[in-house]
């Protein structure tokens, strides 16, 4: 190889090579594709920083402004409001992270990157799977930062200790991964980031607020209590909270994780089907 | 290598492709010429397995694109408006990513990426995010990306649309070196000049139908509007100039201005014949230009007769 890059001979010799690689496994495809998404975040962490702003605002709002709720009747005794609210915020933030998976899919469907992948001999499923894996990793980092900030600035120190907090983070990661499939299914179907954002708020706000996230369920009006009980996020929040409090309830945990996995099981095939459509 | 027969594609009620047939022999370049909306990209999308045809068949190396998609995808490289690279990561990372997806080991992928970056003169920008690339650099990276796996068949969908003239020449010479190594290329373009320079055979699409096909020379002869335009020096004897051109066996016509003469010719080589004829009678020329039929001319001459000529 010489510096004469414009020489036709050099070009022909090198470009003409026909590499004899054997097909990549799905595992490699997922690993390579999720690595790509994560590398983008390391290079440009603005998305991570920006996505931390909303939960931090909520943290200040609820942790400081509404802390008087902890003095209302029906609130568990001997627990600081920040310890009550943070596991819930981890779960609801994980939900918005899942929405970002969907937004990323619409963007890449639009800019042609996915067309390139689809013209290559790789599984279309690994493109979506890689996206969900990358977003769970990103979400886990974001949520850990959030828990750390809460511990340092707002006195977050739940009875469950570090193990308990890691348990809450794991529950949040399951929520992010499973509900991510819901948003990826909508993304592959609608293919418009703007519409997806709107649907995202329509879906996330009721799930967030009509749940056990911010107040104990008995504090909600009757008609909302019904919804909050079947709301899958409620179970996840309860499970995450139980972990942080150092009193994990296996039934609640199984319901929460099982419910999330069921949602993923329904929406993943839908996402794949819409995604394969040209 | 590529063979399409009676291909039709409908999007709801819109007919994007209407009974299109053509074939591209191995190692040659077919230029698919047409305006926006003519159906060029639909053809490429069907051949690259992104779209399913409504009816008709398409094969690549004998493999059916609808039923043997995975084998087809191992043999093709796609580049163009609708298949792009990731602009948030670097050029090198893009090439490594594609090589890894195609089954290369880390080391093989890095080697292939570096080779291609050198060939496409992108070494200096290799580690910068693609977002900051110029249009020409981006297009070169696109080309490199579609070549990572050493495809037998390459689809170039409007490879120079939106590029400045310098970058366009660059891309042309790169495509020529690809062709020299024996790849089969399907090129779509809106520019007759581009098809003329790169393609062995040209197929003209209009509103989803094939309206003409043949070599560039055949198409131009059919349209017959190649001409040499000469501007005579002030005070020249236009009559003598016309007589000299007729004596040389050409058919000159004067244009709006009396000192401009259009002469019908068969190829650009006839410029010298025109100039010599004028020189022999002492007529001085201040400007000579060769004009080719544009894609518009192709349409204007082919589209009106379409209903009558496609009766078969």
From TrEMBL, chain A:
GO terms for molecular function: ABC-type transporter activity. It is a multi-pass membrane protein. Keywords: Antibiotic resistance, Cell membrane, Membrane, Transmembrane, Transmembrane helix, Transport. GO terms for cellular component: ATP-binding cassette (ABC) transporter complex. The chain crosses the membrane at residues 47-66, 78-99, 140-157, 163-183, 195-215, 250-272. Residues 46-278 form the ABC transmembrane type-2 domain. Its main location: membrane. The keyword Hydrolase does not apply. It comes from the Bacteria. GO terms for biological process: response to antibiotic. It is found in: Cell membrane; Membrane. Pfam families: ABC2_membrane (PF01061). Belongs to the ABC-2 integral membrane protein family. PANTHER family: NODULATION PROTEIN J. This is Transport permease protein. It comes from Actinophytocola xinjiangensis.
């Amino acid at each position: 190889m010489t510096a004469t890059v414009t020489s036709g001979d050099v070009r022909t010799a090198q470009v003409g090579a026909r590499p004899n690689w054997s097909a990549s496994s799905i595992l490699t495809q997922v690993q390579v594709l999720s690595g790509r998404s994560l590398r983008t975040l390391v290079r440009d962490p603005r998305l991570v920083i920006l996505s931390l702003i909303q939960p931090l605002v909520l943290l200040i709002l609820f942790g400081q402004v509404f802390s008087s709720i902890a003095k209302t009747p029906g609130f568990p005794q001997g627990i600081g409001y920040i310890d009550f609210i943070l596991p819930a915020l981890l779960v609801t933030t994980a939900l918005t992270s899942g929405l970002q998976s969907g937004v990323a899919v619409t963007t890449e469907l639009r800019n042609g990157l996915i067309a390139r992948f689809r013209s290559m001999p790789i599984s279309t499923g690994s493109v979506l799977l890689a996206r969900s894996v990358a977003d769970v990793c990103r979400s886990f980092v974001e949520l850990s930062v959030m828990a750390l900030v809460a511990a340092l600035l707002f006195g977050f120190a739940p009875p469950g200790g570090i193990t308990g907090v890691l348990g809450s983070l794991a529950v949040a990661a399951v929520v992010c991964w499973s509900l991510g499939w819901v948003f990826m299914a909508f993304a592959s179907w609608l293919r418009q980031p703007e519409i997806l954002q709107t649907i995202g708020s329509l879906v996330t706000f009721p799930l967030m607020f009509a749940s056990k996230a911010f107040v104990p369920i008995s504090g909600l009006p009757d008609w909302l209590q019904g919804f909050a009980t079947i709301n899958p996020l409620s179970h996840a929040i309860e499970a995450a909270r139980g972990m942080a409090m150092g009193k994990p309830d296996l039934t609640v945990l199984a319901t929460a994780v099982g419910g999330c996995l069921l949602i993923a099981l329904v929406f993943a095939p839908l996402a794949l089907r819409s995604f394969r459509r040209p | 290598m590529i063979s399409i027969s009676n291909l039709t594609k409908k999007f709801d009620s819109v007919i994007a492709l209407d009974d299109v047939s053509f074939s591209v022999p191995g190692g040659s370049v077919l230029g698919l010429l047409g305006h926006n909306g003519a159906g060029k990209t639909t053809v490429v999308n069907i051949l690259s397995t992104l779209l399913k045809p409504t009816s008709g068949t398409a094969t690549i190396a004998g493999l059916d694109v609808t039923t043997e998609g995975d084998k087809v995808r191992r043999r093709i490289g796609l580049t163009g408006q609708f298949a792009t690279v990731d602009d948030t990561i670097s050029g090198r990372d893009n090439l490594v990513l594609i090589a890894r997806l195609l089954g290369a080991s880390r080391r093989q992928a890095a080697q292939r990426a570096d080779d291609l970056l050198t060939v496409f003169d992108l070494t200096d920008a290799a580690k910068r995010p693609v977002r900051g690339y110029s249009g020409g650099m981006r297009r070169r990276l696109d080309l490199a990306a579609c070549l990572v796996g050493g495809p037998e068949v390459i689809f170039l969908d409007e490879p120079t649309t939106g590029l400045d003239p310098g970058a366009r020449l660059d891309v042309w010479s790169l495509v020529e070196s690809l062709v020299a190594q024996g790849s089969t290329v399907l090129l779509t373009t809106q520019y007759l000049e581009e098809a003329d320079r790169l393609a062995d055979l040209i197929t003209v699409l209009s509103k989803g139908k094939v309206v003409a096909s043949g070599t560039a020379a055949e198409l131009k002869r059919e349209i017959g509007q190649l001409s040499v335009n000469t501007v005579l020096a002030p005070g020249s004897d236009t009559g003598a100039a016309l007589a000299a051109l007729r004596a040389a066996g050409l058919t000159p016509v004067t244009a709006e201005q009396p000192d401009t003469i259009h002469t019908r010719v068969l190829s650009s080589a006839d410029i010298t014949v025109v100039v010599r004829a004028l020189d022999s009678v002492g007529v001085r020329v201040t400007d000579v230009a060769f004009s080719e039929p544009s894609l518009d001319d192709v349409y204007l001459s082919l589209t009106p007769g379409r209903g009558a000529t496609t009766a078969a």
